[in-house]
Write a structure and sequence with these properties.
With 233 residues, this protein is mainly α. It has one domain (2-232). The chain is built from eight helices and no strands. It has helices spanning 2-13, 16-25, 30-49, 54-85, 92-123, 131-168, 171-196, 219-232. α2 crosses α6 and α5 packs antiparallel against α6. The radius of gyration is 18 Å and the shape is globular.
Length: 233
């Protein structure tokens, strides 16, 4: 356990030594990093869904790491092309390692904030309380969780930039590539999160694994609608 926590801390710090170790080991490093993605994602996913019910929490715990890894798989190809356009001759395996590392840090940061999110969940009216209060709690918690994941994602990509700088060899090129990758991950992540929804089930619906509202809204509409509902209260 102590060794595992040491590994997580080293990945989150992403100092010169850790970045060099990941680059040197290349493909062999992915296994350790994947463990952090899965465990951190499951931990925060559980807190994400627990407000609705323990069953929804289990669904969300399984879907969160799948979402992170799906974003990596869906955008690794285009990110390799973007890196080469920017003058960084990176292989697909190197791009994959950088992206998985970014999501490992994202998952670790999100997991570290899970107790704070859980405290908010505990203080909110439950899904079986007054319908108006339950609806407001749903929208507030949805915005909270989206904000936590967005913050963790920004921090994860920023820390993983050190790994990209070593691979690219030039800081200014690495930063341009990192910015492009951040935009790609944000766009792809938003779209895929809608396909993987719900993580936080509405109080008027029974807990479920697969989405029932594919064509009724999208990610941006749901977040905007939630913000309007909270602001109007």
């Amino acid at each position: 356990m102590r060794r595992w926590m040491t590994t997580v801390c080293a990945i989150c710090r992403m100092d010169q030594r850790m970045a060099s170790t990941l680059v040197a080991a290349d493909g062999r490093s992915i296994g350790r990093v994947l463990v952090v993605v899965v465990t951190g994602g499951m931990f925060y996913g559980f807190v994400f869904g627990i407000w609705r019910s323990p069953l929804q929490a289990l669904y969300s715990a399984g879907k969160m790491p799948l979402l992170f890894l799906s974003v990596v798989g869906a955008s690794a190809g285009i990110n390799t092309i973007l890196a080469r356009v920017a003058g960084c001759d990176l292989r697909l395996a190197q791009v994959f390692l950088c992206m998985v590392t970014a999501f490992a840090i994202t998952a670790a940061v999100a997991a570290s904030l899970a107790p704070v999110a859980a405290l908010f969940v505990a203080c909110m009216p439950g899904p079986r309380s007054d319908p108006g209060l339950a609806e407001q709690a749903y929208y507030r918690l949805l915005l909270l969780h989206v904000g936590v994941i967005a913050f963790a994602g920004l921090l994860g990509n920023w820390r993983a930039l050190r790994l990209l700088e070593i691979m690219a060899g030039q800081k200014h090129r690495a930063r341009r590539v990192g910015l492009a990758w951040l935009a790609t991950a944000g766009f792809v992540g938003c779209q895929l999160s809608w396909l993987f929804s719900p993580f936080l089930c509405k109080p008027t619906q029974e807990p479920h694994l697969l989405p029932k509202e594919y064509f009724q809204e999208n990610f941006y509409e749901r977040v905007w609608h939630s913000a309007v509902k909270v602001a109007a209260r």
